[in-house]
UniProtKB/TrEMBL annotation:
Role, per record: Catalyzes the reversible transfer of the terminal phosphate group between ATP and AMP. Plays an important role in cellular energy homeostasis and in adenine nucleotide metabolism.
Sequence ranges assigned to domain Adenylate kinase active site lid in this UniProt record: 123-158
Keywords, sorted A to Z: ATP-binding, Cytoplasm, Kinase, Metal-binding, Nucleotide biosynthesis, Nucleotide-binding, Transferase, Zinc
Molecular function as annotated in GO: kinase activity
Binding site for ATP: 11-16, 123, 195
Name of the molecule in the record: Adenylate kinase
Length: 215
């Protein structure tokens, strides 16, 4: 049983890395962001709540995040373990989490703020189907057009330099106490997030002592 947390600023590729670990080691990937997006798409009551909060340019509150995680963890569908992404977000949640789940390791993807800016500000989104693009890594074939549906590519409303600065400082402020608590338990593995997706993945596997994936 492997119980991991993955942490990293937006643009650090933590979602991609978590999914690669999920595929290779049969882990359940619990992404708070994905759970919220699912609720928004399915038009659930929670989705409507989340949509309202985001439309106001605010972050989803800790209580709501905590409830979603608790409900998701309560399904107990992991046979080989899980990797959780987007939680815990503050000291109190970290303490609760460590007591409840006995985490094996925290993967901390490190990315300098300058690199975050470069990555995040090059993101685009299809206005019709919602597919994500990145003008550095996944350029569309036709400039400004979605490869899948031909829709117009737009910048996310919250991907302005000002909004990004505020999210960055918010991230650092909130992450510091979480990392400190995890470090006290000596479970944190710092991984350089500047390398390529494959290099980061193999660095993670190495530091966690994971065997080569099954055939
Ligand atoms: Zn599209």
């Amino acid at each position: 049983m492997r119980k991991y947390v993955i942490m990293g600023v937006q643009g650090s590729g933590k979602g991609t890395q978590a999914k690669m670990l999920r595929e290779a080691y049969d882990l359940v990937h619990i992404s708070v962001g994905d759970i919220f997006r699912w609720h928004v798409r399915q038009h659930t009551k929670l989705g409507a709540q989340v949509k309202r909060i985001m439309a106001a340019g605010e972050l989803v509150g800790d209580d709501l995040v905590e409830e979603v995680v608790r409900r998701r963890m309560g399904i107990h569908d992991w046979n080989y373990g899980f990797i959780i992404d987007g939680f815990p977000r503050n000291g109190r949640q970290t303490e609760f989490f460590m007591e409840s789940y006995d985490i094996d390791a925290v993967v901390h993807l490190e990315l300098p703020d300058d690199e975050v800016r470069r990555r995040v500000l090059s993101r685009r989104l299809c206005s019709s189907c919602g597919m994500d693009y990145n003008l550095i890594a996944d350029r569309p074939e036709v400039e400004g057009r979605c490869d899948i549906c031909g829709g117009e590519l737009i910048t996310r409303a919250d991907d302005t330099p000002e909004a990004l600065e505020s999210r960055l400082s918010d991230y650092h402020e909130k992450t510091r106490p979480v990392l400190e608590l995890f470090r006290r338990k000596e479970v944190v593995h710092d991984v350089d997030g500047r390398a390529s997706v494959e290099e980061v993945q193999s660095a993670i596997r190495k530091t966690l002592g994971l065997p080569s994936p099954r055939g």
